[in-house]
Amino acid sequence: MEGPAAPSATLPLDDAAATALERALARWGREPVRLLQVLREVQEALGWLPPPALTAVSRALGVPLAQVRGVVAFYSFLHAEPRGEYRLLFSDDVPDRMAGSGQRLAEMCERLWLEPGKLSEDGLVSVERTPALGLCDQAPALLVNGRPVTRLTAARAGQVCELVLARVPLEAWPADLFEVEDHVRRRDVLLGDDTRPGEALDAAFARGDAAGLGPQSLLDEIKAARLLGRGGAGFTTGVKWESCSRQPVTPRVVVCNADEGEPGTFKDRLLLRRHFDLVVEGMTLAAWAIGATLGFVYLRGEYRWLLDSLEATLARRREAGLLGRSIRGRPGFDFDIEIHVGAGSYVCGEASALVESLEGKRGIPRNRPPRLAEVGYRGLPTIVNNVESYCAAALIARHGADWFKSRGTARSSGTKLLSVSGDCARPGIYEYPFGVAVREVLADCGGEGAIAVQAGGPSGACLGQDEFGRRVAFEDIETGGALVVFGPERDMFEVARHYAHFFAEESCGFCTPCRVGTSLLKTLVDKVAEGKGTPRDLAEIERLGGVLRTASHCGLGESAPRPLIDTLRRFRPAWERRLGSSSMEPSFDLDGALARARRMTGRDDEGAHLPP
Ligand SMILES: Cc1cc2nc3c(=O)[nH]c(=O)nc-3n(C[C@H](O)[C@H](O)[C@H](O)COP(=O)(O)O)c2cc1C
Ligand code: SF4
Question: What pTM value is reported for the model?
């Protein structure tokens, strides 16, 4: 089914597009770094980005049209083709599939008379998939025009179809369709926190004033607490902040990485939704520590539905003197925060790609050095930290390093939020002191029968039963927090295949090892799935995996082979039972390709054929 013909780039803007552009420019201004936000807001008003709108944006911001088109093509949530009045976006994460999202998608497409990825003939509805919506604890999930619908049973899916077909405006849909549970299953110091807005700031100021050290006292406290970043890589937060604070260039910049794109992760959703004051308190403390005036929250596009409440918290804090000029009455301490909404790109969670995206560009990871702490957003010294890291920093500022270190292990202090989903009775968010064994988490979430746990999303480790005694800690299992539980009926080969497709799709294409390597890995895994694989293909996957790990430009390419290598090692029978032949079977029929040569030479004897 084709949609309406796209208007040409040279046509004048219609009234709706002109108004949308004026509004976006009034809000964001005309600097080229505002490109992504302007495009996003124009699209929010029009449903897509018609060619004349791209031309008008290019002129208004002084950005070449080719660059505007490049940005639109890079982000999966920006559309240069028409989409439906109702845009259904299915979460295609592993827990969604396990909960039946494929079946729901097929049923809904049949009811709505369209194919996935297409627009209905009347322009009413379009249906697409996206890798992860951050709602795995209430899968299957989808977004309708950006609003989440969770626990998609057949009945709820049918209800959505009826509402769409009856053209009922979203505001009139039953509220229970849009309910998102918090699913907090275990609280420790962070989720049980009762810090009042400003309290951690006051504690940090008092400590700094008493010691006569000012912001250095906070840097010392964060270092003494041995806070390691909660985004997955575990970099020492105090060292990052101190290095940024020593740069000669000002102003400096504080960025909160709320991209939460790792499939299986959703704990930042809770922190943004219920503990955003603490996140902002942590960012404001960071600003005091490093001497920053500018702050950004990079909110993933999938969490656009949280934007209004986040903006309201920022407004409240400005009114209370906790953001803006002379914060808490301290002359010279000026700091404010803007929220930038992403547009559907996993690689933009990588800190340098995120900064590129903040600058309105495609999210291509930067070459390092220089590090972001030296040359970050618009060339300014910049720190990027995870949402949970800022919360932990606020707790340290309020309670002190010794209190913080009293939880966790010697190398991994404090607590960790885990996003638990998959085959377990109680999916949700669990906070534990570092050092908790995977087995204990499985017992708490009702996942005792598990055969495997994917810890840290596809970039993390796939653990077999013999490893359930291992511990969540930077010295053992490093994880940003996702734990997907797999029961005995799950096929770990299919899980690995899904992740191979995910990485091939999300590779930004900048460097050859990852661009070509992820695509080759996907092809090889598909070959095995079709029953045409051989042991040589498995060896080739391992060899290619080594190339990606060592030669890729960023962490995405480095970790792309991991689910394949891990499952090959721990669940080899799941791979081997699919092999078509125990010897080499080329995916290309070489002997068949010589048939024309045989005809031309008039030979068809045994010597004119390759040996079988
Ligand atoms: C492909 C890729 C995606 C990433 N996605 C995220 C993310 O969604 N959230 C996050 O905090 N860190 C993410 N990271 C890690 C960031 O690059 C960075 O290390 C982190 O934001 C630093 O914060 P922290 O020190 O507080 O952990 C990602 C890294 C890579 C390579
Ligand atoms: S490793 Fe992949 S995602 Fe990273 S820069 Fe290279 S192509 Fe892009």
Answer: 0.94
- Residues constituting the chain: 612
Query: CB within 6 Å of ligand 1 — which residues?
Result: 229-233, 235, 257, 259-262, 346-347, 349-351, 384-386, 389, 554-556
Which residues form the domain of 103? 86-181
User: Is the pLDDT confidence value at 9 over 60?
Assistant: no
Q: Are residues 230 and 279 in the same domain?
A: yes
In this structure, the answer to whether residues 192 and 177 fall within a common structural domain is no
Query: Which ligand 2 atom is nearest residue 518's CA?
Result: 2
Task: Please tell me the predicted confidence (pLDDT) of residue 4.
Answer: 47
CA distance 496 to 94: 10
CA of 185 to the centre of ligand 1 (A): 25
What is the rounded CA–CA span in Å between residue 241 and residue 236?
9
Q: Is the CB of 507 under 6 A from ligand 2?
A: yes
8 A C-beta contact, residue 434 and residue 416? yes
Q: Which of 386, 396, 502 to mutate to test the pocket of ligand 1 (most atoms within 8 A of CB)?
A: 386
Contact 51, 8 (CB under 8 A): yes
Which ligand is nearest the CA of 387, by number?
A: 1
The residue contributing the CA closest to ligand 2 atom 6 is 511
- Model confidence at 2, pLDDT cuts 50, 70, 90, reads very low
- Residues 216, 324: one domain? yes
Q: Is 345 in the pocket of ligand 2 (CB under 6 A)?
A: no
Read off the pLDDT of residues 68-98 as tens digits, 9 standing for 90 and up. 999 999 999 999 999 999 999 999 999 999 9
The predicted-structure confidence for 446-503, as pLDDT tens digits, reads as follows: 999 999 999 999 999 999 999 999 999 999 999 899 999 999 999 999 999 999 999 9
Q: Is the same domain home to 475 and 348? A: no
- Asked if residue 348 has its Cβ within 6 Å of ligand 2, the reply is no
Query: What is the C-alpha to C-alpha distance for residues 432 and 398, in angstroms, rounded to an integer?
Result: 20
Decide: 418 and 409 in contact? Cβ < 8 Å. Answer: no
Q: Are residues 478 and 498 in the same domain?
A: no
